[in-house]
Amino acid sequence: TYPTFALNKVTVAGPKGKVNILDGANFFCYSGHAYALLISDDPDSGITADAKRRALMGVMSGLTTPASGTVMNKSANIVELEPVELRGHRLGIVPQLHAVQPKLDAEQNVLYAMNASNRNFLKPKPVIAREMLQSVGYTEATSGKKVSELSPLDQRRVAIARALCCDAETVILDEPTSGLDVLARDELMDILHAYIEDGEHSVLFSTHITADLERAADFITYITDGRLYYTGPKDEFEESFRLIKGGPDELAQLPADVVLGSHMYATGFDALVRSDRLYAVASVVSGLAVESASID
């Protein structure tokens, strides 16, 4: 069976003269699951997590082309699809910015996406728009109130309804809970998880909020230094990494390709390494403290 959405050996170039944001990465999403992207800063290259996230979202949504490799929706390369086919039938996109038309009301926003899709619908489009808004927990008046006048959570609900209204096979969201309070974040994550329960759809979202992972993600992909250091079940994520601690002079002795990230202190350092590379640490420096890593 084809993945619903996939990156096949995808390279995403970083800013000129800096490391690639992704380098020959493979990543697969299947229907019935929610996938979270954790993206870290790269202090050595100066590429921030935000810059990497924006570049990745551009490639995954088909707005930009990867330097090499292919982004696939089932058996189709998304750069070969017409925009109306991609966004109107296959992918639902919820960016951080410009996810809604602020001067239109909620119903008009959903109708805007439906009309742009060039799809045929079995019911009158206004009826579907109202049903879709109801399905994402929107309880305000669907017409007569500009979306710009709504609460941040209701604006996010409208954006998600726009993305879902054309029965997108995969919905891709960029930091969907950013700026929301705890209760609003949980409610939004529940909406996304409900969308995949029929086993016909998948959800892919970037986040830096670990509570979102606990609430909605089935699988986690961790990206740093241009590589996918982990992609797999959420429950196995913490077991795949260890935190090592040592003195101020010991970090420099560790192999550079083993350390995924580190923090220096006056009295020493913390470093994140893969559990299966601990042998490489022990072969160079003995006596380091080893602890379980958390998602945080």
Features:
four-stranded antiparallel sheet; 296 residues; single chain; 9 helices; alpha/beta; elongated; six-stranded mixed sheet
Description:
With 296 residues, this protein is an alpha/beta fold. Helix content is 29%, strand content 27%. It is built from nine helices and 14 strands. It has a six-stranded mixed sheet. Strands 2-1-4-5 form a four-stranded antiparallel sheet, covered by helices on one side. It has a four-stranded antiparallel sheet with strand order 12-13-11-14, with no helix packed on it. Helix 3 packs across helix 4, helix 3 packs parallel to helix 5 and helix 4 packs across helix 5. The radius of gyration is 21 Å and the shape is elongated. The protein starts with a strand and ends with a strand.
- Inertia-based shape: elongated
Q: Which segments are poorly predicted (pLDDT under 50) over 5 or more consecutive residues?
A: none
Number of continuous helical runs: 9
- Percent strand: 25-35%
**Strand segment count:** 14
Biggest pleated-sheet summary? 6 strands, mixed
Strand order of the largest sheet: 6-7-8-3-9-10
Helix residue percentage: 25-40%
Provide the gyration radius in Å.
21 Å
Question: Distance between the terminal alpha carbons, to the nearest Å?
Answer: 34 Å
- SS class: alpha/beta
